[in-house]
Description:
Layout: E1 2-6, H1 9-26, E2 31-34, H2 41-50, E3 62-65, E4 67-69, H3 80-87, E5 99-100, H4 109-122, E6 128-131, E7 153-156, H5 159-164, E8 177-180, H6 183-187, E9 191-197, H7 202-209, E10 228-233
Parallel strand pairs: 1-10, 2-3, 2-6, 3-5, 6-9, 9-10
Antiparallel strand pairs: 4-8, 7-8
Helix pairs in contact: 1-2
2-amino-2-deoxy-6-O-phosphono-alpha-D-glucopyranose (GLP) binds at residues 35-39, 66-67, 132-134, 140-141, 161, 165.
Amino acid sequence: MKWESFSDYASLSTRAAEILLQEISENPLAVLGLPTGRTPIGMYQRVVSECSREYRCFRDVQTFNLDEYVGIGADHPGSYAAYMREHFFSHVDLRPANAHIPNGKAADLDAECARYEAAIRNAGGLGLTFLGLGRNGHIGFNEPGTPFTSRTRVVELTESTRHANADLFADSRVPTRAITIGIATILSSRRIVLLASGESKRAAVERLRSAVVDDFFPASALWQHDHVTVLAAM
Ligand code: GLP
């Protein structure tokens, strides 16, 4: 695991954007795993400012989001589909058909998870995956206790995760379930970059740095992968 430390969020975001831009310039058919949350917003802003539509940077790129809430549609402001439109998709030339997000309103959620996992496989697997870090060590929505062999599936969210993500939900009506790609799906990426910024992530980052691999700290699974970079600004 490679560690890069930054004095502030701006420089972490610039570095994350640089890694993403380098990937798509070296590999125009890149398959990216993409996160949501507050942390990657600066990365998306920088990528968008370098890659407005006329540059056609994303013409043949495919993206797979890590997760989506169950029970809300793409038009709900709290959905990750809405987040991705706002921060990224509507500003670049990524083809809508190449921008994949699990459908949290699918009638058959298990079938939707299987379809999503197959779509990743059909795209040739995840190339470069960016991750955020939950305060409890979750990656995607893989909460503590998730087996490292897990694949895309429906999960129950912990109270702490629902609380941390309550901003965009009126009356704190954060969904109780989500679809997430699994830890094994994440580990199947060719390369992984984890972003962690701010005091609220310090304990999780320190725990990750301790290199103790433990199901109850999902991010520790990344020690089982040989091409991980952690970008940390504490
Ligand atoms: C959510 C997302 C995760 C993300 C985490 C951290 O739970 N499902 O993928 O990593 O939030 O978010 P933030 O960057 O806002 O701290």
